[in-house]
Each structure stands twice: as structure tokens, then as C-alpha cells.
Amino acid sequence: MMAVTSRRYGGPDVLAIETVPTPQAAEGQLLVRVLGSSANALDWRLLSGTPLMVRLMMGLRTPKRLIPGADVAGTVVAVGDAVTGFRVGDAVFGESAGGGFAQFAAIDAHGVVPLPDGVSFVAAGATAVSGLTALQGLRTHGGVKPGDRVLINGAAGGVGSFAVQIARILGASEITAVCSTSNVDQARALGATRVIDYTREDFVAVSDEYDVIFDVMGNRTADQIRSILAPGARYVAVSGPMKNRFLGPFPHLLAMRFALRRSDASFHQFTAAPPSTTSTIWRRFSLRAS
Ligand SMILES: NC(=O)c1ccc[n+]([C@@H]2O[C@H](COP(=O)([O-])OP(=O)(O)OC[C@H]3O[C@@H](n4cnc5c(N)ncnc54)[C@H](OP(=O)(O)O)[C@@H]3O)[C@@H](O)[C@H]2O)c1
Q: Are strands 149-153 and 174-179 parallel, antiparallel or unpaired?
């Protein structure tokens, strides 16, 4: 099959198109003909091998994973042993451990769900990683409930644009989206009740309070964040500045965690759940959203 490969760490120029062996569906896996995939911040981190701690898991000198691409949508062409609930020809989407940038991908069956009616392979192929991050951040960690005032910092990107829509579905009464000028209309169309254009206004300078802050950017200090948290609020940190070459955002996130202990707000930093729990999460959410 044809695949996009990365045999060393680096920028987009390390990517190549090659003919490689078609994977097999191992026990517990599906072989999927890929009809939609997308490039996430996650794929970029794994491709570049940054921060350097990524390489401890993904290969010290060269990436262990040949084919990038965590998001996959397509049709099942083979079903591995011990898989139940899927048949050849089923349309599915979900998250894989890599391999989406190819004609075929072998994916753990518990990492995918059936494609809902009316959803294209292209749309579904850009959903799992970003959508699950937003869903877990807002629902599991943020505990967003009807009537909450939610602020999403970084509302125009992959994760943030899902977060705006999910906050609306969860019943937030006020959804404040922080993004740049060119994305203001998009944020409104997705459900934001107020948009702060960060090129003109600083959201921490607007004297408002929020019950949940979903922070995709992590570009503010703990004192600034504390000043806009309502009593008992939840601060959900998705990422932070990549200032530390080895540890990336983690020193910043640790500092935030300690600093926010001095307030009555709670701090939640998380890594999106692995594909093993993906299908359960999607199934439950689809039921509620519909
Ligand atoms: N915790 C986890 O499990 C998890 C999972 C997935 C991703 N992440 C992390 O989440 C981060 C975002 O991922 P993503 O896929 O959403 O990235 P993305 O699609 O590249 O989006 C980033 C967004 O940041 C916005 N932005 C840039 N500067 C900003 C500023 N000063 N204030 C507010 N917004 C600003 C941009 O909006 P404009 O275009 O409007 O400037 C852009 O759309 C990455 O660091 C990623 O590693 C974490």
C-alpha cells in the first residue's frame, strides 16, 4: 500500500510517500481502508519528537512508529480474532496509535465506533483526537453543567472548536471563546455567546468570573487565572507553553497546580484517555447529544 512515512524526527520535510507492506488485523484489531484522517498537534509532537521526553517512549534516535496519523475514518476490510460487533464493510471512525496517513490502517477495535448516519469520512477523520480531548476536558474534568459560565482559551483550533460546541450541548449558559480576529465569526457560529479577540483584548483584563476555564493555550499566570475564577470554579489545563526543551509544558502545569492550591478553585490537568476507552465515551456522548 502507499503510505506517508517518517523515518526520522523533524519538520514536514522528513515525511515521504512510500510503498510499504499492508498491515494485518491482529487479534482484537480491525483493518480499515482509510477514507479520512487529519493532522493534530499530537501528530506534530510525535513527528518532531518534541519535547524531547516524547522520544523516551517513541524512540530515542528514530521514531519507532513509521506511519503518522492518529485519527482514522474508513470502512472495515478485515476483522481480527476476538473482535465482536464489527463486520467487513462497516463504516467506522476513531483513534489509532498511528498509521492513519496510509491506504489501510490496523486499529484496535475498542478504539473505534460506527460512523453515525450523515457524517462524512472526512469530517469523522478529523474528530477523534481533538473531539475526545474537548469532551473529556469539559465533561469529565470540567464537570460542565447547565447554567455554567465557561471560558475557552484557544477556541479556534482543533480542540477549542469542539470545546465550544460541547459546552453548548452540556448546557453552559455563557460560553466565552478566545481567538484571533479571523476566527471570531466561526466561534459565534459554533455556539459562543461572547467572543474575545485576543489581538485586541486580554481575557484576564475583562472583569468577569467563570465557573469553568478550559485552557488550551496555558499562556497566563496563576494570579491572572485566579482573578477570573468564580468561587469553587474548575480550571482545566489542556496544554502550556513549550518553554522547556525536554519537559515541554509540564513545569508550567506543575507551577499552576501548586499556585492554584491557594484558591478554592480546583485544578485539572489531563492527558486524553487512550483509545481503549474511546468507544465507550463516544457511545455515551452520542446518545446524550442526540
Ligand atoms: N491534554 C491532552 O490530552 C491534549 C490532547 C490534544 C491536544 N493537546 C494540546 O492542546 C494544544 C492545542 O491543540 P489543537 O489541536 O487545538 O491545536 P491547533 O489546532 O493548532 O489550535 C491552536 C489554536 O491556538 C490559538 N491561539 C494561538 N495563540 C493564541 C492566543 N494567544 N490566545 C488564544 N488562542 C490562541 C489559535 O487560534 P487563532 O487561529 O484564532 O489564533 C489556534 O487555532 C496543543 O498544545 C496540544 O498539544 C493536549
A: parallel
Fill in the amino acid letter for 37: S
List the single range of 29-33, 71-75, 238-242 with lowest mean pLDDT: 238-242
CA 220 to chain centre: 21
Q: What percent of the chain has pLDDT over 70?
A: 94
Cβ atoms of 6 and 102 within 8 Å: the answer is no
Q: How confident is the model over 66-91, as a mean pLDDT?
A: 97
Taking residue 104's Cβ as centre, other Cβ atoms within 10 Å add up to: 21
DSSP secondary structure letters along 255-272: HHHHHHTTSSSEEEE--P
H-type helices in 85-213, by residue range? 121-124, 128-135, 158-169, 184-190
183 close to ligand 1 (CB < 6 Angstrom): yes
Could you tell me how far CA 100 lies from the centroid of its own chain? 15
Query: Measured in angstroms, how far is the CA atom of residue 185 from the centroid of ligand 1?
Result: 18
Query: Which amino acid, residue 79?
Result: V
41 lines ligand 1 (CB under 6 A): yes
Q: What is the pTM of this model?
A: 0.93
For the chain, how many residues are written?
Answer: 290
Q: Ligand 1: which residue has its CA nearest to atom 14? A: 158
Instruction: Write out the H or E segment, with its range, that includes residue 95.
Output: strand 91-95
